[in-house]
User: What shape does this take?
Amino acid sequence: MNKFNLLVIGCGNVGAFVAYNFKDFQLDDFVMQGFIDDDQEKWDKNLFGYPVLGGVDKIVHLQEKTGVVVTIANPVIKKKIIDKLLPNKNIIFPSLVSRHSWISTHVFIGNGVIIYPGVSINYHTRVEDFVIINMNSAIGHDCHIQRFSALAPGVALGGFTNIGECVDMGIHSATRQSVKIGKHSVVGGMAMVVKDLPDSVTAVGVPAKIVKTKKA
Assistant: This one.
């Protein structure tokens, strides 16, 4: 069986997790080759057991099929990088799902998703492309997590929660059932969202209240 090379974009904490636990994912068709990072001070160094091979521009025009995992936690930065790579059809975006997570039947998981150990995802939930769900998060039934969003450790989503695109959910934040969180919004750590949030806001506290609105 032919195997594809795999590159990891980002030498931060999520990148370290992927490197140290690569065998924990069901990626038998891929061989990890190293990191890609735009921080030139990291180039040609060995981090977490793998070489740093250069910046993102180095792989924009890859000529052979290659797996790429984007481990940038910030949804906005992650989206910019992925939008740059998507036109190249030689780039494959596999999902990394820990063997130590629990995924119900009737769950959809898109491309480029990273799911940590201890995560539970209940039935009829959709996890769209390039979402990160960090350790010990609990996702209720019939939830929808849209592209590029990031859930920190211990996030708990009640059933029928809808998380918009590029949402950043802080550590141990939670939602009541059927809550909708608008795209590009940020929910602070340990906040409890009990009613819908619009696009582009920051909400904190219990219950969560809007403390900042981003300018369009």
Residues 4-94 form a domain with the Rossmann fold fold (CATH 3.40.50.20). The first strand starts at residue 4 and ends at 9. The chain has two domains: 4-94, 97-203. Residues 75-85 form the longest helix (11 residues).
